[in-house]
Amino acid sequence: MRKTQDYYFKKAKEEGFPARSVYKLKEAQEKYGFLRPGQTVLDLGAYPGSWTKYVARLVGPKGLVVAVDLQRLECVADNVSVLQGDVYDLEPSDLMKISLVFDVVLSDMAPKTTGRRDVDHFRSIGLAGRALSFTQEILRPGGTFFCKVFQGEDFPAFLARCRSIFKSVRVIKPRSSRPESVEVFMLCGMA
Q1: Are 166 and 146 in contact (CB under 8 A)?
Q2: Are 48 and 54 in contact (CB under 8 A)?
Q3: Which of 45, 79, 119, 137 could form a disulfide with 109 if both were Cys (CB 3.0 to 4.6 A apart)?
Q4: Which positions are catalytic?
Q5: Please, how many CA atoms are within 13 Å of residue 31, restricted to the half-sphere of its CB?
């Protein structure tokens, strides 16, 4: 039986983050340093707000975080703009009303899991593909795309698609991801 209140869960609560997912982003940031003060960042799948809160601190008062989720997210800082809605209904033009370009696009989107790995995988690939579509429209040259995706049958094709678009592509399995999880993160950099 999985321990739901593990080390990272407890650490998140102690540090004031609503979810353990912050450590997945934090680990990548500490290793690759793609988030910097003054940046404009799109955070897709932002609820419950751990990534948003962490990124808002990193980009500082001159930066901006645009947080998007189906669920209502409380604004966690003055430099955060919240959009509640479905990414399949959202258009790049909706985001461009807030900022014409973004330095970083983050996606921690995941489907409501069904328990069937194949179904969950295909839905995850769909969400990752939607995030990638936004990225192609709004990411500035030299920008970064960091996206969660579930491994499975269509993962190699998604990886190949990313490699055809970006100068650099890394597949990351953070230490804070549960060992049994099929999630990985793609860290992609534009030329």
Answers
A1: no
A2: no
A3: 45
A4: 148
A5: 12
Structure tokens at 13: 């609560």
How far apart CA 87 and CA 23 sit, in angstroms, is: 24
- Domains, the chain, ranges and CATH? 7-189 (3.40.50.150)
With beta carbons less than 8 A apart as the criterion, state whether 106 and 41 touch: yes
The stretches of 50-177 forming alpha helices (DSSP H) are: 50-59, 92-96, 117-138, 155-165
Which DSSP string do the residues of 150-168 spell out, in sequence order? Answer: E-STTHHHHHHHHHHH-SE
Cis previous bond, 141, omega within 30: no
CA distance 126 to 14: 34
Residues of the chain short of pLDDT 70, as ranges, are 1-5, 8-9, 11-13, 16-20, 191
CA gap 123, 85 in Å, rounded: 17
For the entire predicted model, the pTM comes to: 0.91
Residue pair 83/68 in contact by the 8 Å Cβ criterion: yes
